[in-house]
Amino acid sequence: MGYYDFHKNCCIAMAIAGLSVLSSGLTPPVYAQPTRTSTIQSNPKSSVDFLNRGRDRFQRRDYKGAIEDFDRAIILNPNDANTYYHRGLLLHELGDNLNAVLSFDRALQLNPRYADAYFRRAGARYNIGDRPGTIQDLQLAAKFFQSQGNTKGYQQAQNLIKRLSTW
After folding, report:
1. Is 70 exposed, middle or buried (0-12, 13-18, 19+ CB in 10 A)?
2. Which of 11, 91, 106, 157 could form a disulfide with 84 if both were Cys (CB 3.0 to 4.6 A apart)?
3. CB neighbours (10 Å) of residue 20?
């Protein structure tokens, strides 16, 4: 591999690796809410309680606790796309890209218009070497971001598609 190819591949890898950074503005940040969280931590009862506690734990980098909460939320409500999405984010963060893709797959089965899930699954697919899947997911993310009026998400997906067109 020559310098040009190496440099080009590094640039693409950095662009895709930056999906988390680029998409940080696409979903609302999760801020800890001590009163609500302490109640949830001491007495979770519903899938929403477990999801919220899992999101809080994920933000605090308690990955083991977060995955346990996401899994419990899924047991209580296996039809919540948002829980699968958040579990996918966590698995991607941990470098478990194959299982992240599977979680995003389930989220998208439950909500086929979930633009953020397509966008994040593109990053996991890139990391496992699935070029066609990466581009397809970015195209779908762009389509749904545009139809939902999310200009920033649409532009980010389009920019990554352009960068990957030479991959």
Report:
1. buried
2. 106
3. 13
